[in-house]
Amino acid sequence: MTGTVTTTPTSPADPTAPAAPAADAGRPAPDTAPAALRPLTEWPRLTSAIPRDPEVEARVAEILGQLTLEEKVGQMIQPELAELTPEDVREYRIGSALNGAGIWPGGKRHASVADWVDTVDGFWSAAEEAWRDRPFRIPFMWATDAVHGHNNVHGATVFPHNIGLGATGDPDLVRRIGVATGREVAATGMDWIFAPTVTTPRDRRWGRYYEGYGEDPTVVHAYGRAMVEGLQGDVESLRADGKVLATLKHWIADGGTEHGADRGTARASEDVLRNIHAQGFLAGIEAGAQSVMVSFSSWENPANYDHTPGRAEPYNDKVHGSRYLITDVLKDALGFDGIVISDWDAHAEVAGCSAGDAGYAVNAGLDVLMVAGREAWQSVHRSTVRYVREGVIPMARIDDAVTRVLRVKMRAGLWDKPRPRERALTRSGAGVVGSAEHRALSREAARKSLVLLKNDSGLLPLSRTARVLVTGSAADDLSKQCGGWTLTWQGDDVDHADLPEGATVADAVRAVVGADRCVVDPALEHADPAGFDVALVVLGEDAYAEMRGTLKPWRSLGYADLKQSYARDLEVLRRLDTAGLPAVSVFLTGRPLYCTEEINLSAAFVVAWLPGPYGQGVTDVLFAPEPGAPAHDFQGRLPSSWPRTRDSAAVNRVPPHLPDYRVPPEETAPEGRYTPLFPVGHGLSLRDTAPATGTLPVDLPPEAPPAPPVDGPLRVLDAAGTPYRLKVGGHNTWSRVDVPLTGPMRCTIVRSDPAPAPEGTGLSLRFLGNPAFFYAESPTGAPADLRGHLAAGGHVRFLARVIEPPTHALFLACHDDYPAQPGVDLAPLLRQAPPGEWTRVSVPLTELAAAGMDLRHVDVPFMLYTEGTALLEIADIGWRTP
Known about the structure:
alpha/beta; disordered N terminus; single chain; 27% helix; 6-stranded mixed beta sheet; globular
């Protein structure tokens, strides 16, 4: 639905629907409210807080003039820890490296601060040796993802994710978090972080929604600036110990793609791009951000031209290949003079490029190429050098890139800083990383981010002497509290051992009321509600990050619709309601979801977002204070509209600074049945005397159509090949890799080879011990309704020959959002199979349906995934009925 809305920030409500509670009734706006934006009709020329320094420019030019072509390209390559050695740094003159999520020194999940410092120091020393015989030196730079604290390091402080910070209404808090994060990163010897994310997320289906501060570009503008100021400081402080280089990401409109698709396509006008999706970048660049990371997404617009027309493969609108957005807009129009860096292997998705060839993307304006695999980054180095010598890439383009790299390193004072292990903060790193002061700051942020949507009868705050039943799937779950990007990529497997100072909400409640007055029963399997004064129901999404967290266009936005485990939370609330026990619901989520029935069944309802591992920040507000202690009120206000219906995925407030705003094709106008249930800025206080919320209107799910009839077996892989695209993905394989039937495939998580089979084409799959999935995907991406196979008693069948049995669970599934939906574990069966002999595996579709798979929308009819090792040969895959 598109249209023009020109009246108010929120369009008129459906007159037949009950009115939503008023936002912040009777309460003045806080002093920290972000300043209003002004509409932009063209790209503004920006003035950075860290301006050009003639002395720096002269030194850069002097060094640049002495570099060979190979050395220049080495400064443009950024491999990751698992695919790089100190010898590589010496040989290729590599300028920087990074550690990906879930990659630790020596593969040690709980690597110490000293381990990290030693690792970074080793690569730094290798770079020093590389330049020993030259009349100059170029310091090495280490980069890391620190998106909510130094989240890849064991023992570091983890902060609430950005969506929660956007709810606090406190840019100064965000600035202080930036300061703390910078100190912890610096204490491990690192120089550069890939944060903040300044996307403006506009579709709740997007799996990275929580990485943005909210749908309101005004909030993103204010908080993006504040975080950069905290991380970097001013010109002088950036050179000092304790500050790190910030990266604004992801340029641009990754939060505005159609259907919220990860790495999808944005079709917004350039005005929308400028006034909504660019606002965080504009503020961050003015604050002095020294790096911008480019988005995996595409922008489909006539302005996004092919800078090298006539090639065999025309430009495919990927931003990584957009000379218009990278060079013409970001560098030339805005005047950004720092580093433009690619995302992980993202150059490979640009038409005409590949994992080992980034030529078109380099010509578009990329300065540093984040290339993971060892063979790939070495190939990119070789091909880039060759392209320059052949005249495909101008030397001026290489010189621009290396000038920016050297400029940023000098601005960061890297020539003046000692080796990492001798820096002031690294010498006291264990006392900085995860310090009590920083944990207290995270607790404060969690407390301030809570948004109160309902508090009927003044139930909150709770008495500290109440008998409390703590229930719900998230009651005692640190991974749900922290979300993705927490020690590992998806963050779904963290526990108290990973977060040694962490406390779940259940832990925090026990500390408040005492263990004798608190019973924790997440599934409500044992406790009798009659024995309690109140139930605290903690419900919420499982942890996820990019890829896994994105909801497909056909999925409901209803919380209880998404997973069977989420539906059980709704059932718990229904049981408590029947028992007459008042419930206080605390919702942990990375995005607004439809949960109206859950709100109706709760006497009080609190949105806690992803508050981090310090559950005390939640109980600080839920419970009355101890005598003499400060009382805390609910400060949080919604940074995004709350959906009224199950399909309100891309419904957002009309930006108040754009009086003639036209709703883009990717969004739905906030009017009629799509009027938000709660608007941006809504949030109650304990002081409010507003009337009870009452029963909110429930949006009933649509009735499913009859299952289509089955007209034969469903072919996946047989003697004739496959009608699907065979791929692997998972741990640090973010650009999913094609699996050929005619030759080998090698990547860091799976190796495949063609294999002879008794009934046609076969594949050998070696899973290497990291989270990995092999799958057959619809070539169009469209799902099929396959419930007819279920009704006909169908099975998923295939031949398997077990060479090395699986060491962990190995799941069969029919979806591609690993492992957001469950599968059927085949490991016990495969371990019992005769070694080296072909075995027929047949799994009834009834088992897959019972596990919670949506057979009405199947775009991946076959998937195997595991986190362990295994060597299997598979063949003759299909869905068959008796």
